Amino acid sequence: MKALVYHGPGVKAWEDVEQPELSADTDAVISVDTTTICGTDLHILKGDVPAMVDGRVIGHEAVGTVATIGTGVKNLKLGDRVLVSCVSACGACRFCRESRYGQCTGGGGWILGNEINGTQAEFVRVPFADNSTYPVPAGVSDEEVLMLADILPTSYEVGVLNGRVGPGDVVAVVGAGPIGLAAISVARLFSPSLVIAIDMAASRLDAAKRFGADVMINNSEVDPIAAVRDLTGGLGADVAIEAVGVPEAFELTADLVRPVGRIANIGVHGRPVTLHLERLWDRNVTITTGLVDTYSTPTLLRLLAGRQVDAKRFVTHRFGFDEFMHAYDVFADAAETGALKVVLSRTG
Known about the structure:
The chain has 348 residues and is of the alpha/beta class.
């Protein structure tokens, strides 16, 4: 089969690899119908994720068809259409029993496209298939449900829920890429009074407006700290969400929050970040970090099926599997191309 393979920092190739087989009776092999590229994949290609080794298939998001199942799989049958979650869950360890699947100690967690071969391929082996896949609701397209593999549960859990967004809150989101836009979108479910998007790309700020931001701040032109304080009577945001994954973005996020506010870090960080405790220690600020656990995926699937979440609008570019290399170029140059999420499909 063909797959997108990592060969060290900055090097990748769409090439022939062995088709996966079952290695445990709780595995399933999924024929990948659609997949996508994540900002985390760009971090991987920069060398920010130590678990990645030469020869591993990239990717942790997919919608596909069940091709093979192990004898221990109870909830799937051949031909089922399923969402492959970015997080695998053994279901039995302490963390899985607390719905903290991202911290699974039984062989799961974020392993696809990280510790084992991932989803940017024609087929993928999914461990713990009963706990790590979800049936696709009737009437929902592949590319809509694909957005629930990672970006929507990540933004919902690690951004909005960790940040405890509530009615009347002022929410500042640093970074209007796909994760930031998802955070803006799902924050709206909790009736904030004001959502502020901060980014340096005009195209992404335009997207932020479409996704529900009330105020757009270009921090290459305007001092975002002064602007947010002007909007909040000098206090700052109730919740500040970091959705980029670079030191400058986190440090800005920390400067935007009010006393007794909440900082929710979503970004994947590959470099050290300065935490200015000398400015924060006496302000009763809460800082949360997190890898998505995907406990919210069933809820988000119901919201998607009920058309209370619009996932399709994230998709800006579509490609066939044979266009993977070009798709990466388009996604990586999002400031110029306007790419939010790119979808790659078996049928093109």
